[in-house]
Specification:
heterodimer; A: alpha+beta; Alpha-Beta Plaits; five-stranded antiparallel beta sheet; 6 helices; B: 96 residues; mainly beta; Folate-binding fold; four-stranded antiparallel beta sheet
C-alpha cells in the first residue's frame, strides 16, 4: 500500500464501478497502480455493517483462470491445491482461493489479507511452460478485466440473494466453499460462498460490462435489509 | 418456471439454458456431399415425440445432451456429450 487519495481518478487503474462511489469520505488506496475504495466510513461502523449486510467492491483483487486438458495437472505441479469436486473451493497454503468451476476449469484469487501475486506468477509460468513438445497445460482464462468481483457479507445476504437468484443460498442449504454458476438479476454469475470468520460472505463475479447494472441491482435488493457499502480494509481484517 | 437438470450444475431454471438443435451424425469430413452438409447444418427434423438435442447451460457455457419429449415437454434425461462422442474427429484434409 502506498498513496491514498479522495479522488479515484488520481490512479492509473480503477474499478469498473468507481463512478458509483460518490461520497467524499471514501478513502482510495493504491495497490499495483489500482485505486481501491479501502474505506467508506468509520471502521467501527463498517464492522457492524459487515455482520448485518454489506457489499464491497473487490474488482481489484488479482485473479486468473486456467482451463482445458492438462490445466489441473499443471497447477498441481505448481503446488496449487485443487478441489476434488466441481463447484467447490479451497484455500491454498498461502491464503489464495482456488475455485473449481469444471472438470478442467480452475479460477484462482489472490489472498484478501496478504497480497501474494500468485495469479500473475502463475500466468507468467504458464507462458513459459506452454510450448510445443511440453506436456499440455491447458490455456489461460483471464478473469481480471473480464469480470467484476463483489463481496456480499452478513446475516441477511441469503435473504437478499433470494430476491435476485433462483438458487437457494441459505447457509444450511449452500455450504461454505460451494459455488453456484447461475443467473443473478438475469446476468450469468459465479457465486462463491466464502465465509469470513463467523459470518456469511459471498463472492459474486459478473461480466465486467454489466458491473454497474449488477452493483445497482444488488444495492436495490439490499435496501430492504438496510445493506451498506463497505471498504476493502474491513473485509481484509475479517479474512482468515 | 420449467426446470432442467444440468449434468454439472444440477436442477436449474430453463431460462439458464439455450437449445442448440438436434443431435445428428456428422457427415464424413472428407467425403460428405454438399447436400449431406446442408441437411446436417440447416435442416431440422421437427420430430413429434422423444428427441435428442444439444443444450447449453449459459452461465457455465457447458454443452450437454438432453432427451425430451416435444409433445409432452417432459425432459427425460440429460447427460454429458462424452457419453456419446468418445473419439476426437480428425479433420485432416483429404488431398485425393
Amino acid at each position: 500500500m502506498s498513496n491514498t487519495s479522495t479522488n479515484p481518478e488520481n490512479f492509473n487503474c480503477r474499478s469498473f464501478i468507481y463512478r458509483k462511489f460518490k461520497s467524499s469520505q471514501v478513502i482510495w488506496t493504491e495497490t499495483n497502480n489500482y485505486g481501491i475504495a479501502s474505506s467508506i466510513t468509520d471502521p467501527t461502523i463498517e464492522s457492524d455493517y459487515v455482520q448485518q449486510l454489506a457489499i464491497c467492491d473487490l474488482s481489484y483483487l488479482q485473479r486468473t483462470g486456467f482451463k482445458g486438458a492438462g490445466a489441473c495437472e499443471w497447477l498441481k505441479n505448481q503446488n496449487i491445491n485443487i478441489p476434488t469436486s466441481i463447484n467447490h473451493t479451497l484455500s491454498n497454503d498461502d491464503g489464495c482461493l482456488i475455485a473449481r468451476l469444471g472438470i478442467n476449469d480452475i479460477l484462482i484469487f489472490d489472498s484478501l489479507k496478504n497480497q501474494t501475486n500468485l495469479p500473475i506468477k502463475l500466468e507468467q509460468q504458464w507462458q513459459y511452460d506452454y510450448a510445443p513438445g511440453n506436456k499440455p497445460c491447458g490455456f489461460i482464462v483471464p478473469r481480471q478485466d473480464s469480470h467484476a468481483c463483489f463481496s456480499v457479507t452478513g446475516e441477511y445476504a441469503p435473504e437478499m440473494f433470494a430476491k435476485l437468484c433462483a438458487i437457494d443460498l441459505r447457509v444450511k442449504k449452500f455450504a461454505n466453499n460451494m459455488i453456484a454458476q447461475t443467473s443473478l438479476a438475469r446476468l450469468s454469475a459465479i457465486i462463491i460462498r466464502r465465509d469470513l470468520n463467523a459470518f456469511s460472505n459471498y463472492l459474486v463475479l459478473v461480466e465486467s460490462a454489466s458491473a454497474e447494472y449488477c452493483w445497482d441491482c444488488l444495492l436495490d435488493a439490499m435496501q430492504e435489509f438496510n445493506g451498506q457499502i463497505v471498504g476493502t480494509s474491513i473485509l481484509a481484517t475479517f479474512s482468515k | 418456471m420449467k426446470l432442467m437438470p444440468c449434468p454439472i450444475n444440477g436442477l436449474r431454471n430453463i431460462s439458464e439454458f439455450i437449445c442448440g438443435g438436434e443431435v445428428e451424425t456428422m457427415p464424413d469430413p472428407s467425403t460428405g456431399s454438399d447436400q449431406e452438409w446442408a441437411e446436417y447444418l440447416f435442416i431440422e427434423n421437427n420430430t413429434k415425440g422423444v428427441v435428442r438435442e444439444w443444450w447449453m447451460h449459459t452461465p457455465t457455457s457447458y454443452w450437454f445432451i438432453a432427451e425430451r419429449n416435444t409433445e409432452t415437454e417432459e425432459i427425460i434425461k440429460t447427460y454429458p456429450a462424452s457419453d456419446i462422442f468418445k473419439q476426437r474427429v480428425d479433420f485432416t484434409q483429404n488431398k485425393s
